[in-house]
Fold:
Amino acid sequence: MLYTDRKAQFGVIRDYMPDLFFSHKPEGLPSDDTQMAFLTLQHIMQNGCLDPQTLLDIFANNRISGMGMSVGRALARYRAGNKWYESGVESAGNGALMRIAPVIIQYLNKPSADLWLDTIAACVITHNDSTSTACCIAYVDLLWNILHGNMDNDPQRIIDRFCSILSELETNSILKSRTGTVIYSGKLSGFIRQQINQALNENWSIQTACTRWGSGAYLLETMPCLLYIICKHIDNLEEALIEAVNIPFDNDTIASLTGTVLGTIHGKSAIPERWLVNLPGKITDSTKITIYDLINQ
Structure:
């Protein structure tokens, strides 16, 4: 549903809606973002390191809810016999970015440049695309610097850091806007700087901004939405996530990325207790393991 239609029918959604398929209770169930991120985390914790072929096996052998088109194509290529490094498709979608954060976990106590090799390997198994890879590296770099106290919760520094790394790694790939409201052809870093600066100067609402850019599963839309939400609500995880889930189209991915950044900044204490209480934590149908099991480990 478009934002205006959904708001007219349901108002602003601030809590879980009733599950229409299983329990019929208002609870939080995982989307593809949560499933693939926590399957990655589980793999790293059990394996001791990231192995891209094993990780792709895990994705291929689990039912992923709401799987994106590019991930689906990559898994089909892998099942058809392609090597893990041949299965990824050329796509500037957000399907690699949404699950990339767990690669950082094994390096927190032992920093190594291998973090960047793992980031690339985890990305290209589904999205063998220069913009996607550059975006994943810039995002992991951002999380690393937040965790090590280098960002000072300053949204402008966050944007500058992300775009600085991104612009160094982007190739000559040209992204084009899709909405018709904003006409752009160029690199992702240039679009982010241009649009967010205008949005901040003119004090656009998040809904106005994300409608102008689009909020689909396309990095030219995902990243400005994510970074603008962080700019407007960097000190309030709850309001940031409410804004994210109420935008249309790929709101699950934009919300998961927002939660990752602001969760990294503020920690678990910033998450409303009512959201945790009503979160079953289930990851897949084929295993009993939950998010809580992984966190407790």
